[in-house]
């Protein structure tokens, strides 16, 4: 029970010190006691209304849709190039071709595959893995530049031009003149990958927070046409924004379907030129909305102060014994040494140049980063749809379908499912008061990814049984006359893993960028988003370490191992972080100044 004297005393403490991360429940109780149960920062929404009325997403501003288009165009160009890297690098030039296209109609009908450089499976795998690593490492550079120097908008403009230069180099690498010498073409490809990786990575860490920043709404009551009173919820709106943002990503990936046909029928320089032309729309759309975007200005470097806060908090917990370090980190008083409020007046260390709220922001950032650290094991499963499953498809009866076309089933599935989840499944769960929280959604994604890899392992087993070459590179099995001899299994059977991985992305991938945005303080959103994307780079490193296993005769073991890993790691993830579900709303309040009226839902 809090009496009037306690309220006054705590009000003085609150006034003297900024919001403390560890005292969020106490401060929220105080706010409710003083403001008659009206949530501070909301538009006159009471706690009773908050708990009992149905929550729905708000309408998205048109500037958010402009940013969504930017992501759509960028992803079209990314997938329109990387989706055909495998065949471009791995396979030899088809008969009578100078561009990589399958010229002979007979070859095209008989499982003919486009190719150019003829460097084999492992070089193809290595370059594609390097590309993924670079694209998901460079977001840190874009994040630091945006948060400290240029702001997100200018950073996106500058690096979109860098990316465009890289695409130009890529088109040149695939010209007939370059392909006359595969080694020269390979060198130009590596340069293009580096330049495009720098540009695309610096875009990635800034476009995703920029789209959510366009919405600045608060909790408010609205009467629907049916007469029902509902609450427009910022958190649900952000969830909806990222669902449609991810739909744009996959719609762009679907646009890349044309790349496989362009490469097979017209050659690789044409296939690479088409996405380059699409990319030209990005600077135009950014400039059109220039005066209307909500732009967060650079705040100066907070990374140094963040590390100083962590160092001060860690000092008492440090020990040569790992068990003592873990106990110290888990202690509820862990962050106190870094808080100004922990010291009496006049005794605050000179090295402390921040307030309690900044310590709360760092604590929340560390929580978010801890959650994201498990994602590399999920991305290992996802990475298989990029190349290895394409090789699996290449061993099956194609019926005239390019083997690298099937991976586009993944984005098609996501585009179909996102409206179903946004308009039907998630509202139904909210209506039934079932809390499908971010932690539970991420865990569900791990389980579905595990199922996808188990499906792939079983399918590969049957391909080995039905291929004339069995487990001796069935994707390259040929008869005495050089004609392909595929497995009798229809290529569309491989759609299962692509579709299941797509479902898992709705749960894990979308939720991870939503979690990174909502948990990141305003001063560190790009950095935390870059950290989320860096998990894919870590997965690429892990995948690269498994190069020896990326052979067709090892695919059953590879897919099976990933299936078990996703299940085990996902379960460990849920056991560790399920407690954060109860703190979801309170965690979202840190670093929002007046805290926008978020309260502890209990």
TrEMBL record:
Location in the cell: Membrane
Membrane-related topology note: Multi-pass membrane protein
Leader peptide range in chain numbering: none
Gene Ontology MF annotations: transmembrane transporter activity
InterPro entries noted in UniProt: MFS_trans_sf, POT_fam
Keyword Isomerase assigned: no
Keywords assigned by UniProt, alphabetized: Membrane, Transmembrane, Transmembrane helix
One of the Pfam families matching this protein, by short name: PTR2
Transmembrane regions: 125-146, 153-172, 184-203, 241-262, 268-289, 405-429, 441-464, 491-515, 527-549, 555-577
Location (main, coarse): membrane
Gene Ontology terms: cellular component: membrane
Family to which this protein belongs: Belongs to the major facilitator superfamily. Proton-dependent oligopeptide transporter (POT/PTR) (TC 2.A.17) family.
Name of the protein: Peptide/h+ symporter protein
């Amino acid at each position: 029970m809090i009496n009037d004297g306690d309220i006054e005393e705590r009000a003085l403490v609150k006034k003297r010190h900024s919001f403390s991360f560890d005292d969020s429940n106490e401060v929220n109780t105080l706010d409710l006691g003083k403001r008659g149960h009206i949530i501070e920062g909301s538009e006159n929404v009471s706690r009773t209304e908050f708990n009992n009325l149905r929550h729905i997403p708000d309408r998205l501003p048109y500037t958010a849709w402009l940013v969504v288009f930017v992501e759509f165009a960028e992803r079209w160009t990314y997938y329109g190039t990387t989706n055909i890297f495998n065949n471009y690098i791995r396979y030899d030039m088809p008969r009578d071709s100078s561009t990589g296209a399958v010229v002979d109609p007979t070859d095209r009908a008989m499982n003919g595959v486009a190719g150019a450089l003829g460097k084999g499976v492992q070089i193809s795998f290595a370059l594609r893995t390097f590309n993924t690593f670079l694209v998901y490492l460079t977001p840190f550079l874009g994040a630091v530049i945006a948060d400290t120097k240029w702001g997100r908008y200018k950073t996106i403009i500058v690096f979109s031009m860098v990316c465009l230069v890289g695409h130009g180099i890529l088109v040149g690498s695939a010209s007939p003149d370059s392909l006359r010498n595969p080694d020269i073409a390979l060198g130009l490809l590596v340069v293009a990958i580096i330049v495009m990786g720098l540009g695309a990575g610096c875009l990635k860490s800034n476009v995703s927070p920029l789209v959510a920043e366009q919405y600045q709404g608060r909790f408010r009551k609205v009467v629907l046409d049916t007469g029902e009173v509902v609450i427009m919820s910022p958190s649900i709106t952000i969830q909806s924004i990222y669902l449609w943002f991810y739909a744009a990503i996959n719609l762009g990936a679907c646009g890349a379907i044309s790349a496989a046909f362009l490469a097979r029928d017209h050659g690789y320089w044409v296939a690479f030129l088409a996405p380059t032309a699409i990319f030209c729309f990005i600077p135009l759309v950014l400039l059109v909305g220039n005066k209307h975007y909500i732009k967060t200005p650079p705040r100066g470097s907070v990374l140094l102060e963040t590390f100083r806060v962590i160092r001060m908090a860690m000092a008492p917990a440090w020990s040569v014994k790992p068990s003592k370090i873990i106990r110290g980190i888990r202690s509820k008083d862990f962050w106190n040494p870094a808080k100004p409020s922990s010291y009496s007046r006049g005794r605050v260390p000179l090295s402390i140049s921040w307030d309690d709220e900044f310590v709360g922001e760092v604590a929340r950032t560390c929580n978010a980063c801890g959650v994201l650290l498990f994602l590399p094991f999920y991305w290992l499963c996802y990475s298989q749809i990029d190349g290895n499953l394409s090789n699996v498809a290449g061993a099956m009866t194609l019926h005239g379908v390019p083997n690298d076309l099937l991976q586009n089933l993944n984005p098609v599935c996501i585009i179909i499912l996102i409206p179903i989840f946004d308009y039907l499944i998630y509202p139904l769960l909210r209506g039934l008061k079932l809390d499908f929280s971010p932690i539970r959604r991420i865990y569900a994604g791990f389980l579905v990814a595990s199922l996808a890899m188990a499906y792939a392992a079983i399918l590969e087993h049957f391909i080995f049984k039905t291929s004339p070459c069995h487990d001796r590179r069935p994707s390259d099995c040929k008869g005495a006359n050089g004609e392909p001899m595929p497995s009798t299994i229809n290529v569309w059977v491989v759609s299962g893993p692509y579709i299941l991985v797509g479902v898992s992305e709705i749960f894990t991938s979308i939720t991870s960028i939503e979690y990174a945005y909502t948990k990141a303080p305003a001063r560190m959103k790009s950095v935390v988003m870059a950290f989320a994307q860096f998990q894919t780079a870590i997965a690429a490193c892990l995948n690269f370490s498994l190069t020896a296993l990326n052979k067709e005769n090892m695919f059953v073991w590879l897919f099976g191992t990933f299936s078990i890993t996703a299940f085990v790691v996902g379960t460990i993830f849920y056991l560790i972080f399920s407690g954060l579900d109860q703190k979801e709303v309170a965690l979202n309040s840190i670093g929002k100044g007046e805290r926008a009226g978020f309260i502890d839902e209990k």
